[in-house]
Amino acid sequence: MQGKVNGRVIDTEDPSGDDLLHLLLTLANPHRLRIISILTSERVYVSQLARELGISRALVQVHLRKLHAAGLIAADVEVSEDGRAMKYYAVNDFDLRLTPERIRAAARTLPIPDRAVEVP
Q1: Does 100 have pLDDT greater than 90?
Q2: Does domain 2-107 fall into CATH 3.40.50.620?
Q3: pLDDT on residue 115
Q4: C-alpha to C-alpha distances, 85 to 27, 41, 59, 77, 79, nearest whole angstrom
Q5: CA-to-CA separations, 16 to 13, 24, 93, in angstroms, rounded
Q6: pLDDT (tens digit, 9 = 90+) per residue, 37-87?
Q7: Is the dihedral of CA 67, 33, 31, 25 positive or negative?
Q8: Are strands 8-11 and 2-5 parallel, antiparallel or unpaired?
Q9: For the chain, domain boundaries
Q10: pTM more than 0.85
């Protein structure tokens, strides 16, 4: 599964160190975990998610943008019977496995901080 962050493609199956950190930070939010949980059983639109989560539509949209950017969910626009455009969200099939070996491989791709500048 792939997503894009700042124009860069994220591979959830074999992420770089930066991508792994981005995925973990994206998932480290209870609202986002609940959104993924809801989307595993059905496609849902923003207002329905807001009602189920008990938070505003604006806040739901913030979380949906982050999940979408990480490639964890997909969006699809449909026109309802009354002519309104409805944006439905569904979870993408992803498998993010954390093993010591995968973490080590990802960590090898992280930039090394500049140690020449020390803060007193």
Answers
A1: yes
A2: no
A3: 63
A4: 28, 22, 20, 6, 4
A5: 10, 12, 19
A6: 999 999 999 999 999 999 999 999 999 999 999 989 999 999 988 998 889
A7: negative
A8: antiparallel
A9: 2-107
A10: no
